[in-house]
Design goal:
about 300 residues; alpha/beta; TIM Barrel; 8-stranded parallel β-barrel; globular
Length: about 300
């Protein structure tokens, strides 16, 4: 995969990144994680993104990546207590403990990026969470600091000028960021990570999904009625993934999977480059004609 300059950080990142949520939440066996990561690295991927609250994700990655630290950039997130649910933990001492725990579990001396995980504008404005990450950076625990989130919270995070990177939802069913935040992030030279880049493949569910997390995308896609999601699933994933990576300002798309071999398929899709201008424009026009004001970025 051809690498992209990750904003002002200077990192040369692969357009496809490994997302660590699924392996943690689904409690994937360590042997499967080793296979997943082996395939991903061999396919040219060099970005791994996880979070302290992704159940056992950091532990699994730390065990599986031993001896390979020079082959990838390692990103994680802080701001929520470990365990079921997402309980906010924005106190500076909790953030410091979280970062130290992530370093220990990931078996590394430093992170390439530590991100605040869906932190509200109100909390950001107090300044303590930003100071905590700046302290970690000064101490050499992380090379860069970033913000992960959406909507007006993300817009403030960009405007405040404290962060090197932005991670936000960008996909065929979630396009608010294309106008609200991405242009400003590009102006400021921020590295941009697209999360949920294939809209959780919500089109695969013929009936309303039991998983509330993907219901908004499922409902939106029913109304958007894109032609490409009615064909073969591989084609739908390819178009969706290439759409996200065709968006101006996006440097890397984070995809999670528990299926060995999926990385080679995804890498093949990405190798075909951006969508044609006409196909990209058709998807954008469909969104603009159908999307409602309530279709905001999904955390």
């Amino acid at each position: 995969m051809e690498k992209r300059l990750f904003g002002r950080t200077g990192m040369q990142v692969s357009p496809l990144g490994f997302g660590g949520a699924e392996i943690g939440f689904e409690q994937v066996d360590a042997s499967v994680v080793e296979k997943l990561l082996g395939d991903a690295l061999e396919a040219g991927l060099n970005v791994i993104d996880t979070a302290e609250c992704y159940s056992g994700s950091e532990e699994l990655l730390g065990k599986s990546l031993a001896g390979k630290r020079s082959q990838y950039y390692l990103f994680t997130k802080c701001g929520h207590e470990r365990g079921p649910g997402f309980v906010d933990a924005w106190e500076p001492d909790k953030l410091e403990k979280s970062i130290d725990r992530s370093l220990r579990l990931l078996k590394t001396d430093y992170l390439d990026l530590i991100q605040l995980h869906s932190c509200s504008e109100a909390v950001l404005k107090k300044g303590e969470v930003i100071d905590a990450l700046a302290k970690a950076k000064k101490a050499g625990k992380t090379r860069f600091i970033g913000y992960s989130g959406d909507g007006q919270d993300a817009l403030y995070a960009i405007k405040c000028g404290a962060f090197d990177t932005l991670q936000t939802s960008v996909n065929v069913a979630d396009q608010e960021a294309l106008e609200l935040t991405l242009p400003l992030a590009a102006q400021q030279g921020m590295g941009v990570i697209a999360k949920r880049p294939i809209a959780n493949a919500a089109w695969l569910s013929r009936t309303k999904p039991a998983n509330d997390y993907i219901v908004p995308y499922w409902e939106r896609l029913k109304q958007l009625g894109y032609d490409f999601i009615n064909g073969k699933n591989g084609q739908a994933i390819e178009v969706a993934l290439r759409f996200t990576l065709s968006v101006p300002g996006v440097h890397v798309a984070i995809v999670g999977t528990t299926k060995p071999g999926r990385w080679r398929e995804n890498a093949a899709y990405v190798s075909r480059g951006p969508l044609s201008k006409d196909t990209f424009a058709e998807i954008r026009q469909k969104w603009k004609s159908v999307a409602k004001d309530t279709w905001v970025g999904q955390v």
